[in-house]
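Quick one, T. Sequence first:
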Amino acid sequence: MTPVSDSALDPLHATATEIFTGALRACNIASAFDRRICIEGNTLYRLLPDGSGPDTIDLSCYKKIFVIALGKAASPMLEVLLDRVKRRKGMRGICCSNQLPKCRNWRFRYFEGGHPLPNEESFAAARAALALLKKAKKDTLIFFLISGGGSAMFDLPLDPRITLDDTIAFHESLLASGARISEINTLRKHFSAVKGGRLAMAAPEAAKVSLLLPDVPLRSLDALASGPTSPDHSTVADVRSLLEKFNLKAKLPPSVSAFFEREDLPESPGNKGWRPPFFPKSSKNGALPTRGVTAAAAMSEEDEAFRESVFEIMLSSHDLSENARLLAQKAGFHVVVDNSCDDWDYAEAARYLLERFHALRAIHPRLCLISVGEVTVKIDRVPGSGGRNQQFVMECALELEKYEGERLTVLSAGSDGIDGNTQVAGAIADPTTVTRAHAFGFHLKSSLAAFDACPMFTALGDAVVTGPTGHNLRDLRLLLADNS
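Structure tokens:
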């Protein structure tokens, strides 16, 4: 087969990038808000997914409206809510994101939390939110605006003796463990004073509306930001099993190990075994409709403490995938969506998707295989500069080398614009990547083992750079073939 030059692959690189960035642009928070929530005067309407008509909340029933916004999309979500809620008297709140907005509302306190590891502002934001929620009574309505990244940037240990440095070490151990996100968040929930439903329990009498931009599987919404407002059905027994499974006990700081070894380690709110005195019991507030609670298993109506809460998904990875599908079809590709490798090890996910890709393109020469979700990376040493998306793409590049002369491209990038410990969203590879990398002095297998993909992709001009997007709807992987 006649070799394909680097320049001949440039259009396919550009197409993959355009599909990714276009799918992100189409995930507009303001538009999503208006599709699901309508505020007219003092009445909030939300359309129920079963088509049975709108739920309504009379805002005039409440003397105070509090807003707690946390996660990578906290600032744009708060901006949209403030634009829609015209009644501002008695409104106060906290906004904690990984980047401070240029324009700030004087009624709110803003915090720049750390990500992927917590910082002092992460603790300060959590303390400020808990202090504000203590003022909430039956006449208070609380909006919780929750997006991905909140697990790190908004945190506070349940045991006040655990320091920030020890909390950072705890998070580092979890991220390097190779555990699935659901397993990591089980541990985070039982560690934290603001996760696993405890943030909601800090205002037991208030009515609550949680507006969600999940970066987790929709079947596991209680994992979003480690579930600060949703009941947690994981148990202390689960925690101890996970500590053993991933050999974490020896890797945790002594203060954290001692906390998890406590015989009286409390269950999370929402679990039948949970007990005070960490937070008071909840009482009902009849102002919110009980049918407003989503049908997700982790937010079931059987949990008395959360019965009056409303949860609404504003955007998700499904929207990201659907937007990418429409754009790829418009570009003339046969499109297949396969999300079955969600939460897999990155190398296993690469092998699976490439096998599926090659089988499909034998039938459809102009093909786009789409996959959303996240892959896992187990780190056994101090990592270089990289992230799970670049690690995945580098693994793919080694396999694509066998297809010299074919127009193939793989892109994987994070919808938040950040991959791991880098400031790039992800990367692109093709059958020439390995050869070009060698010409620059890079050896992919060495970089792969060192978790050091970013320098190579940056040198090749194949890093995907978007800057912070104000989103966190999980990762998007695109495998494109154009051999028609």
